[in-house]
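Example record used in the benchmark description.
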Amino acid sequence: MIIANSKFSEIIQGFITNEINAILNKYNNIELEKIQKVEALISRINDADFKQQLLQDFDMTFNLVTDIGDNYVDNNVIKMLLWIKNNTSLDIIVSKLIKMVDEVNEYGYASINDNTIIYKKDEDLREFAKDKLEYMLEDEFYIDKLFTKEVLIEMWRDGTTKSDAIRELIQGIEVEELLDMDIQTMFEADDNKEYAYAVIDC
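Model output (structure tokens):
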């Protein structure tokens, strides 16, 4: 193959030709079934930017195809799977991710494990916080973290119940701060809302 560009010397054109030939050889040697599976996935993506991201790396995209298998997935599940594979050490099967996306759409959040959630930013997480605080207020470590000694004395004097304490905490402090959430933005969903990944200190 000859590169007709006077900008490059004959030697540099030789390097370019070798690299192009290596790429052509790579794709000529890929099994047709693999190519068809990748093409099928890419053709389902209607997000132009995300599609371009997948087109940057055939091997990465084929790995996604392998993980997805015969499951029907939408853009959000694929984006979530790719983000988790690239940014965490979690090993989550696609069928669980599909359920998690459904939970996020219905409840605003979904739990990956005891201290990690995925949620849509700006969603109301107070019910989630309430459930976590039920557990946290049984642990002396978190009680000392959430309340000063003076406040604890006042609560004891006033006969404050655990339910009262939880209600006051949720009403007075943003959930992200209250649960000391370490938050990372994952991606923008099809509805233009951002998904976030958060690890909770509890």
